Batch of 4 targets.
Target 1
Amino acid sequence: MIRRRIVVLALALTLLLPVLFTGCGIIEIAPPEASPAPTPTETVPVVPINPAWTPPAVTGNTTAIPAPAGLPNIADVVAAVKPSVVAINITVINVFNQSQEGAGSGWIIDPNGIIVTNNHVIEGANTVSVTMDDGKTYNVEPKDIYTDALNDLAILRINATNLPALKVGDSAKVRVGEWVVAIGNALGQGISATEGIISRKGVTLPVDQGQTLYDLIGTSAAINPGNSGGPLVSMAGEVVGITSAKLASIGIEGMGYAISSNTAMPLIQQLIKNGYVVRPWLGVNLRTVDQFTALAYRLAVKKGAMVSQVAANSPAANGGLQPNDVIVAAGGKDVNTADDMVRIIIGTPLGQTLDVTYYRGTEKKTTQVTPIQSPAPAR
C-alpha cells in the first residue's frame, strides 16, 4: 500500500481556462528561503500603518457564550463572529500569461480597516480584494499589504472605518478538548463555519523545505482550501488561532492547524507599527543539505545549512561566508538543517557574536558573525 503524507496550506485556487477548481483545490505553496533574505534594492520606503498602534487587550477566554443544557452554543458564536470574517480574493498571472484566481480568508482586528490573514494567501498576487460579510468589496493597494513570510502572516489595510473587530483570546489558556469553531471562505464559496475541538497544542510543523511553523494549535475542525487566514475561535467568540495549514494523508482524516494567537500577536503588532517584522539578520539565504544536494554540489557533508546567497556588506559577508559554504554549527549548537540555522539567528540578541563552523569544499573553517537588525523590505 502506498502511503502519502502531505502538508498543504489551505488556499483555494482556480484556473480561468475555463473557471474550474484544480482537482480538489488543495495546492502546495512554495515558501521563501529559510533565512531572512539579503537586503533588496529598496525603491520606496516602508510606510507603517500606525507606529503608535497597540494590540487589543487579551480577554482571556474566561466566559463562554451561554449554551442550553450544557452544550456548546455554536450558532450564537458563529452569529457573533461571522460579521468580522472576510473573504479574500486574488488573481495571479502565471508564466503562461494565464489568469488564476485564489480564495482565502481574513478577520478584522481593528475597526479602522486592518485585516489579518496568511502570507501565502496573498503572496505573488497581482490583485487583492476583500469582501465583507455584508457583500461590500474593497480593492487592496500593494502599498497596503504588509507581510511576514517566515511566520506566514500578513496584514491588509482597506479604506473603511467602524468595522466589527474581533476579540483576541489567550491561546495559552485554551485546553485540549475544548470546543472551537473555524470560520472562513472555504473553497472560495463564501463564509462558512466548521466545529471541532482543540486536539493538540504547541505543534511544530514543517510545511516545506526551509519553512517550519511553530506553536501551532491542532484542531479537529474541518479545514478546507480557502480557510487560510480565517480565525479559529473559542466558545467565548475570541480568536485563539489563525487557520494556516492541514495535514493530509492517504488512509487518515486531515488534521488542521492554526497559528496560536499568542505567537501571532507580537508579529501582527510589528507589522502594523513598523510595516515589517524586525528580527536579527545575517544576510544569507539558506537551503537544507540532503543527500541529493550533497551529491549535486559534491559536498563534504550530508547535512547542514548551505549558503545560497550572501548580501553585500551584511554580517555574513563581513564574516567571510560565501555561496555553497555549508554551516554545520553556530552558537555552540549543531546545524543539521536550514531551519536549525534560522532558529539560531532569530534567537540571538542583536549585537551578540556567533561562532560559526562551516565547510568550504572539503575544508572545515570557523568564523564569527554578529547579527544586526533586519532591513526594511522593498515595496
Target 2
Amino acid sequence: MSTVTTPAGHAATAPAAPPRRLLDWRLRFAALSLIWGFSFLLIKVGTATYAPFQVTLGRLAFGTAVLAAAMAIRRERLPRGTRVWGHLTVAAFLLNALPFSLFAYAELTIPSALAGICNATSPLWGMALSLVALSEDRPTRVRVAGLGLGFLGVLTVLGAWQGFQGLDATGTALALLGSLSYPIGWIYVRRTLAGTGHSHLSMTGAQLLLATAQLAVVTPLFTTLPTRLSVGPLLAVAALGALGTGLAVLLQYGLVAEVGPTTAQMVTYFIPVIATAAGVALLGEGLTWSTPVGAVIVLAGAALTQIRPKAGAGPRQ
C-alpha cells in the first residue's frame, strides 16, 4: 500500500479498487478547491470573536464528528496497537493541532489572502526537507530550480525590496511555520505509518481524534470561556471543521482513489487563488500587485518541485 499526502496535511493508504462515484471527479475537485480556499476566510471570521485555540478546537471537533459518522456508516473501527497510536499522536500534532493553531494565530494580524499564499509554500518546504530526510527522493535540476523560484515568489509576495514595509512579521512567520509543519508531518508519517494495514479513514479519524484531545487539554490553559456566543463566527468555525476538515478529507481521498495522487494534489494550486479572491471580495482585504504576481511565482516553483524523472530515465536533468 502506498502512502499519499494531501494539501490539508493528512496521509493515508490509497485503496486498490475505487468505488463508483455519484458525482464526476471534476465537480468534486472544484468543490474541494472551494472548500479549502474559503477555509482561510472562515478562520479570519472565527478569530474575530473567538481565541485562536478555541477556533482550532472547534474546527477539530467538528471535523472529527464528520469522520466518526463516516466510519459508523462504513462500519470501520479505529486502528489498534500502541505503536500505531503513538505515531498517530505525533502525526496529529504535526499535521493538525500545530498548523491549524499557527494559521489561526497568524490571521489575527495578517490578511486571510496572505495566509492562503503562505500555505501554498508547503510543497517548497517539502522539497527542501526531502533532500535531507528521504534518501530515495533525489533532486533534479528542474526541482531545485523550482525550489529557488518558489522562494523568490515568497520574497515577492512579502515585498522584500521594500524592506517588508506594512507586513506583520510575526503573523507571516507563524503562517510560514504552519506550512512547514505539514511536510515535516508527511515525512514522519511516511517513515513510521506506511504499510500499517489500516484504512485511510480509520487512520485519519484516529488522527483527528487525537488532535482534538490535544487541543482540549491546551485550550483551557491559555483561553477563557467567551462571554457571548456570536452566531456568525460560530457558524464559520463549524463550517471550517465539518467542511474544511471533515468533508474535505473524504473528498480528497475519494479523488486520490479515482484519479491518483498527482491529479488530486493539483488542488493545491487553486487554494491561494480562491483564498485571495475571497479575502478581497468578501472581507475587503487590500491587494497590491506583488501579491498575485508573487503567488503565481510560488505556484510555478511548487509545480516544478513536483516533477520527478520517469522510471528508467537517463542522467538527472
Target 3
Amino acid sequence: MSTVTASRAPEAAALPAPARPALDWRVRFGALSLIWGFSFLLIKVGTDGYAPFQVTFGRLLFGTAVLAAAMIVKRQGLPRGARTWGHLAVAALLLNALPFSLFAFAERTIPSTLAGICNATSPLWGMALSLVALSEDRPTRRRVAGLGIGFLGVLTVLGVWQGFHGLDVTGTALALLASFSYPVGWIYVRRTLAHTGHSHLSMTGAQLFLATLQLALITPLFTSWPSHFALAPLLAIVALGALGTGLAVLLQYGLVAEVGPTTAQMVTYFIPVIATAAGVALLGESLTWSTPIGAAVVLAGAALTQPRRTRRRTDGN
C-alpha cells in the first residue's frame, strides 16, 4: 500500500526534524496500521458494487484530493521537469495504478484476509529483487534465511500440501503480483527519483495525480458507467481513497521523518493481522489453521530480511 514516500525513506531520515506533532508517534503508527489493515476489507466491499477499475479510480481520485488539499495548506507546488514527470508516471503505474487494480481484481474471488497476507510478502520480493538490482544491498546469511522462511510461510498459507485445494489460483496470483509490483516500483524510484530536490508531499501528490489520470483513461475502455450507485460500496471507496491512500500517506510522512524508515516500515507486519481480524469479524470470512500460522511465518521471514536497525534518535526514548 505504499507510495513514493516509502521508497524515499532513506532520504527522509536525513532531513531536519520537524516540529513535534500533537499526537505521539505510537498513536499515529497504530492509526496507520488500522487504516491499511482495513483497506483490504474496503476493497472487498467496494468490488461488491463496482468494477475493479472503478474501485481503483475512485480510490486514487479521493486519495489525490486529500494530498492536493495538504499541498495547498502547506503551500507546496508540483515538481518541475519533463524527466521527473516521466519517471513519476512509471512510479505511478508500478506503485499505485497496477497494484491497486490487481488487488481489486483479486478480491473478487479471494477473501480480504488472503489479500492482506499476500501484501505482507512485499518485503520478501523486495529483498530478492534488491540482491539483483541494487549492488550496494549485499546478502547476509540472516537475510537469505529470512527469504527462505518467508516463502515457506507463503506455501503454508496456500496449503501446498493439499494441492491448493479450494484456493482460487488466479485471484491469489493477482494479489501476489500486486505485492511484487511494490518493490519493483521502490527500486525504480530509488534509482531515478531519490535526489530530485522536491519534497515528498510534492512528489507523491504528482504521482497519485498521474495514477488517477492513468485510471481515468483505462477505466472507460474496460467498464461501462454504473447503472446505479450502491451506497455502501461507494462509501467504502471514498474511505479507501481518503483514508487508506490520502491520509495514510500523510501519516507515513510524519513517521518516517520522526522515527526513521526502519521503524515506520514495521507497520507492514501489523497489516495482515488487522486485515485477517477485520475479514473474519466483519465479513464472516472463513479461516483455516494454515492461514494464521503461515502468515506468522511470512512475517517472521520478512522481519529477518530487513537490514538491522542503526541506532538513532527517535522521540527521546
Target 4
Amino acid sequence: MPVIFLICLIFGIAYFIYVKQKERKLIEQVTPITRGEWSERRVILNLLKAGINPKAIFHDLYIQKPNGEYTQVDVAVATKAGIVVFEVKDYSGWIFGNEHQRYWTQLLAYGKEKHRFYNPVMQNAGHIQAIRRCLPQNPDIPIYSVIVFFGNSEFKNITCNSDNTFIIYPHSIRQVVSDILTQPDANFGNKYEIMNLFTKAVQNGNDPMIVASQISSAAYYDRYKPQSTYKSSFISLLHFGRFSHRRKF
C-alpha cells in the first residue's frame, strides 16, 4: 500500500508540474510571466483557453490621458464584437456596493474589519474613457467592461445596471467572453488604430518613468479615500487574506 501511494504521489506531482509548465507557455504568448499580478495572468490564461488569439490580448497597458497623466489597464482584448476591458481585483471577505457609489466596502472577520476601495465600475469606466479618447477613427466601437474578483470574496449586495458591464468571479470569465462574442460584429473605423494604441500602451509599461508617474498620480488621488477601520493583527492577516491592491486610476 505505501508503494502504491508513493507512485500515485509522484505521478500527481509530475502531472501538476506538467500542467503548470503548459500554462506558463500559454501565458508567455501574451506577456512575461513576471509582469503584473498573478490574478491578471489567470485572466489571460482563461482567455487563451477560451480560444482568443494571443495577439488580440494586451496586458498591463499604460494609456496617456489628455492632461499628460497615465491610467493603467489590467487587460484589454480586441474582438470582432468590440473591445473588452478587464479590471482585476484580488480581495477577500464580503463585498458591498453599487455602480453609483464612489467607494465600495469590504468586510472581513464577519464585519469586525471594514475597508473602502474605489468603485471598480467607475474605475474601469475611466479606463474606457481614456481608451475612447485615443481612438478618434473608431468612435462607435463597443467597449465592454468586465470586473473580475479573485480571492476569497463574496458579493453580498452588488448591483450594476450599466450597459456592457459585468461584475463576475473568475469561473465566469469564459462564459462572459462567449456571450460578448455572440453580439453583432462591431463597426470598426480603423482596426490598426486600436492595435497601435494597445501595442504602444504595453510598451509604455516598460518605461520606469511612465510607471512611476502613474503610481504617483494614483497615490495623489488616493489621498481622499475614506479611512478604513482595521484591527492590525497577525491572526486577521493569516485568516482573512490580503487587502492591498496596486493602485490604478
